[in-house]
Design brief:
Helix content of chain A: under 10%
Shape of chain A: globular
Strand content of chain B: over 45%
Distance between the termini of chain A: 41 Å
Largest interface: A-B, 24 and 27 residues
Number of helices of chain B: 0
Largest sheet of chain A: 6 strands, mixed
Helix content of chain B: under 10%
Oligomer: heterodimer
Number of strands of chain B: 11
Shape of chain B: globular
Distance between the termini of chain B: 36 Å
Structural class of chain A: mainly beta
Number of helices of chain A: 0
Radius of gyration of chain A: 14 Å
Order of helices and strands of chain B: EEEEEEEEEEE
Radius of gyration of chain B: 13 Å
Chain lengths: 115, 114
């Protein structure tokens, strides 16, 4: 069965520091992977997605993620955190059970950015 | 182009009351989904639909029903609300294209059952 594990429910960084949010997946077939961001009291919006075209994926707002098959990981990074990056981040994998477009989400990681 | 909209934004129910949440999308998407979000549990799929007139159960369907009479709308019903259904509910939609299509989310409905 497919699953997603996000390591660390809360991550705190200083403004200007590196952001690293960890995501590991389990999938028996090559996965499609996503990172979504949720700002307070809003819905989720797509940051970036991996669909096998390139292992390093660039997204919006300076975020990027690298797909590492050997480590079954898809960690999200940003070189320099900004106060506006404070939000909850979700990693997700596309379900391969039938063509339904279903996503399986991780538990989420709350990013706190300190001034 | 409004994307995905949800009605209402907030609602308070008493135990045993019923209500319907409405989701509408204007992107001509085939697939639609209802999730609930609870602290520390991420998003859990309640029901989904792969086309007009079709519905299917997700991970946590008990206590909920859905209908997709029109392609652009997906309704979520609670027949007899329980405090355990206090949550934030999100609707999403996606195209029926190749695997890897992203889901587009609505702004959410915050439901409290007392």
């Amino acid at each position: 069965a497919q699953s997603v594990t996000q390591l660390g429910s809360h991550v705190s960084v200083s403004e200007g520091a590196l952001v690293l949010l960890r995501c590991n997946y389990s999938s028996s077939v090559p996965p499609y992977l996503f990172w979504y961001v949720q700002y307070p009291n809003q819905g989720l919006q797509l940051l970036l997605k991996y669909t096998s075209a390139a292992t390093l994926v660039k997204g919006i707002n300076g975020f990027e993620a690298e797909f590492k098959k050997s480590e079954t990981s898809f960690h999200l990074t940003k070189p320099s955190a900004h106060m506006s990056d404070a939000a909850e981040y979700f990693c997700a994998v596309s379900s391969v059970s039938g063509n339904t477009g279903k996503l399986i989400f991780g538990q989420g990681t709350t990013l706190q950015v300190k001034p | 182009n409004a994307g995905v909209t949800q009605t209402p934004k907030f609602r308070v129910l008493k135990t045993g009351q019923s209500m319907t949440l409405l989701c509408a999308q204007d992107m001509n998407h085939e697939y639609m989904y209802w999730y609930r979000q609870d602290p520390g549990m991420g998003l859990r799929l309640i029901h989904y639909s792969v086309g007009e007139g079709t519905t299917a159960k997700g991970e946590v369907p008990d206590g909920y029903n859905v209908s997709r009479l029109k392609k652009q709308n997906f309704l979520l019903g609670l027949e007899s609300a329980a405090p355990s259904q206090t949550s934030v509910y999100f609707c999403a939609s996606s195209s029926a294209g190749p695997l890897g299509a992203e889901q587009y989310f609505g702004p959410g409905t915050r439901l409290t059952v007392t």
